[in-house]
Design brief:
- There is one protein chain.
- The strands form three sheets. This protein has a three-stranded antiparallel sheet. A three-stranded antiparallel sheet has the order 5-4-6, with no helix packed on it.
- It is α+β, with helices and mostly antiparallel strands.
- Helices cover about 30% and strands about 30% of the residues.
Length: about 110
Amino acid sequence: MTGGAVVTEISTALSVSSLRRTMANYTFKTPYVLEAPSGRHRLFYFANLRKGVTVVKSGATYSTLQYAVDSDLASYDIVYRGGYEYTVNDAAKAGLIAGGVGVTEANFTAQ
């Protein structure tokens, strides 16, 4: 093997390695709120219900909906329904965090 072939193999390996790093996928868990009381009995005052918050994107603007209606969701470009997990890439992750809707690094898990 010549010196040029070694350099080519190393640079190819580095390119594939950096490509894998830039195309990382993450599991995105939508934000949630704790709601209480959920009933009139006094025992309900001690329990909080975890309610998922829907994150939507329209154009370049992210916003949240707590009680989303299916017929309204069709008007948004991207919809992340509250209470579900989604696979997102680096660009979507960066957009969600920068969107100012309460999404932080803690909402993502590397796959």
